[in-house]
Design a protein that fits this description.
The chain is about 35% helix and about 25% strand. By secondary structure, the protein is of the alpha+beta class. The strands form three sheets. The chain has a seven-stranded mixed beta sheet, sandwiched between helices. The chain has a five-stranded mixed beta sheet with strand order 11-10-12-14-13, with helices on both faces. The longest helix is centred in the first third of the chain and has 24 residues.
């Protein structure tokens, strides 16, 4: 547990392993026992048939909220399921207290379908600045971490996103059409051009990890929910990548972004994709 006179940096230096343990324990206790074992009554819809929530989501978030707030007294939690129940709780992300941003099961559709392409996302931020993140894919036993100014790692190995190979089509994961407005659809159409190979995205957290690993050139997403982006944005940044909105500004987890936005393997690719998104409007 952090002492009240510790700084956030000191907390991370001393307790990052405790956060990792909490993430792993939440998955072991609440997510993996339900993987490929979900009963019908454990699955619900939120906004529609493509927006699912399960008992694993709710219980894993509850576990993490308790564990993480205990580790860092005075911190607050912004979790996907808690915000769904109380939208006003999202405002804590703009407050003065350190905030844990949690997506307990990112890629719930994949989880429900028995696919391993889901993960748990946790980020720590303060005053809109991302300080640390944890991306855990329990069915694949992969854990990616990032600490501001200290790099990104996957299972302890440093991640470097690199740059796309010259002359090769850019591979870009994009928002599912169900989650885009007409204006955003027009912007995303800018990616359907020579030299670009867009595809629909899966779990946002795992797409960010693919960018940080240099396996995917960029993402182009049209929604702002911080729990989907906070962990991945920092992971990509610390691996050497960059992120921009379609108006050329860095993406802000506190909101108010010009959408869609991109995160890419390097700054040049981010500028190129942002330009295509701007031109598609």
């Amino acid at each position: 547990m952090i002492e009240y006179n510790e700084t956030i940096e000191e907390f991370l230096a001393q307790h990052s392993a405790d956060v990792e343990e909490a993430v792993r324990k939440a998955a072991a206790a609440e997510i993996m026992p339900r993987f490929r074992q979900l009963a019908e009554h454990e699955i619900d819809q939120k906004s529609g048939p493509h927006d699912l929530v399960t008992d694993a989501d709710r219980l894993a978030e509850r576990y993490l909220a308790g564990a993480l707030s205990s580790l860092l007294p005075g911190s607050v939690v912004v979790g996907e399921e808690a915000v769904h129940a109380d939208p006003a709780s999202y405002e804590a992300i703009r407050g003065d207290a350190p905030v844990w941003i949690i997506d307990p099961v990112d890629g719930t559709r994949q989880f429900v379908n028995g696919d391993t392409g889901f993960c748990t996302l946790v980020a720590l931020a303060r005053h809109g600045v991302l300080l640390a993140s944890w991306t855990y894919a329990p069915a694949r036993d992969q854990l990616a971490t990032a600490v501001r100014g200290q790099g990104a790692h996957l299972d302890g190995v440093r991640l470097r996103s690199g740059a796309p190979e010259p002359g090769r089509d850019l591979e870009i994961a994009t928002s599912h059409p169900d989650y885009t407005t007409d204006d955003q659809k027009r912007a995303l159409l800018g990616l359907w051009t020579d030299g670009v190979a867009p595809r629909s995205c899966g779990s946002a957290g795992l797409e960010y990890l693919a960018v940080a690993r240099g396996e995917l050139d960029a993402i182009a997403f049209s929604w702002e929910a911080a729990w989907d982006h906070a962990a991945g944005i920092l992971l990509v940044e610390e691996a050497g990548g960059a992120h921009l909105t379609r108006t050329g500004e860095p993406f802000r987890i506190t909101g108010g972004n010009a959408l869609p936005f991109t995160a890419a393997r390097d700054a040049a690719t981010a500028r190129r994709v942002a330009g295509l998104l701007a031109g598609g409007v």
